[in-house]
Amino acid sequence: MHISLDGFVAGLNGEIDWVKVDEEIFEYVGKRINEGDTALYGRVTYQMMENYWPTAGDKPTATKHDIEHSKWYSKVHKVVLSKTMKDAGLTNTKIISDNLSGRINELKQSRGSEDILLFGSPTATHSLIQLNLIDGYWLFVNPIILGQGIPLFVDIKDKIKLKLLTTRQFTSGVTELNYIVDRQ
Amino acid sequence: MRKVIAAINMTLDGFCDHTAGIADDELHQHYTELLDNAGIILYGRITYQLMQFWQTLIINPSGEKSLDDFAMAIDKIPKIVYSHTLKNTEWDSAKLSNQPIEKEVLELKQQSGKDIFVGSRSLIIQLMNHNLIDEFQICIHPVLEGKGLPLFDKIKDRTIFKLINTKTLGSGAIVLYYEPTRQ
């Protein structure tokens, strides 16, 4: 998840023009996401992905990252949280529309020790935080204060302790903060 | 010219809460070094009154080196306290001010000396809105507190920073060092 220093994942109208991504970050992120074969999305982010990635690798201007990520996207098992979508007719895509806790826990068990990454998707993240279903936060802190926008952390009722696993400083000024939730 | 540096702790969800962080030996050492290299530190009343706790360790040292070192450092550093209600600071190295902070900071910057640190959320916000902070040293603690006073509150414009450095502490706290880019 890309966040601003003041904790927003997007501007008030969903703007992400401030997010700094470059080859260095793509390559670094790619290493971890290629290890897993399940990707979790909220509906809005999924629809954005669906509009872009299936064909992104075929464009004449496609970069190395576009081609690789496009391949990964078509191959990965996609799980989408949505109350309105149906999974009929979708390839390699499953919809979770109810019993979020139960379905996510099933998914976690079926994947064994593999991490399930939730991409972007602030609304889905908020639902999962509420249900205590997030085991870690992999954040890319952008060197910017937005002042307003969609916050990542909302409605946290009880204090959540975290453990910082790794951190990395990128040349663009982005800092990776990789945490797991400390359940003790 | 000496810099104005905002140095403060916040939780990962952006709140400044004195009790939320992990105040271990390493954090105290970090802030002791910071104070030893500072020319002056500016506080609002609330943070200042929290800091007055350290006066008790000057009289009665705790025996814990990191705490006693920090107490000595904060005792030594000149302090300015911005308050309209305090009558006196009850600390020789602290003086009261009821002047507008932006005016006083501009004057301080003209004087020679080591950097000017700002250690209170309210003062940082005021100085940010006057574009008077030259560097941020934000120590992010590995906790989601869920409530409190947000550090970056009522900031109207986007501010773009340059990341200068990071320093990770054993507790999982991380200090991010930024300079605002002036546009």
Give your account of this protein's structure.
The complex is a heterodimer of chains A (184) and B (183). Chain A has one domain (2-181): Dihydrofolate Reductase, subunit A (3-Layer(aba) Sandwich), CATH 3.40.430.10. Chain A is built from 5 helices and 11 strands; from the N terminus they run ββαβααββαβαβββββ. Chain A has helices at residues 23-33, 43-56, 64-75, 100-110, 122-130, and strands spanning 2-4, 8-10, 38-42, 77-81, 93-96, 117-118, 136-142, 144-145, 150-151, 160-169, 175-181. In chain A, the strands form 3 sheets. Chain A has a 4-stranded mixed β-sheet, with no helix packed on it. Chain A has a 4-stranded parallel β-sheet with strand order 5-4-3-6. In chain A, strands 2-9 form a two-stranded antiparallel ribbon. The longest helix of chain A is centred in the N-terminal third of the chain and has 14 residues, at 43-56. The model of chain A has no long low-confidence stretch (mean pLDDT 93). Chain B is α/β, with parallel strands linked by helices. Chain B has one domain: Dihydrofolate Reductase, subunit A. Chain B is built from 6 helices and 11 strands. An 8-stranded mixed β-sheet of chain B has the order 5-4-3-6-1-7-11-10. In chain B, a hairpin with a 5-residue loop joins β10 and β11 (174-180). The longest helix of chain B has 12 residues, at 25-36. The radius of gyration of chain B is 16 Å and the shape is globular. The model of chain B has no long low-confidence stretch (mean pLDDT 95). Classes of the chains: A alpha/beta (184), B alpha/beta (183).
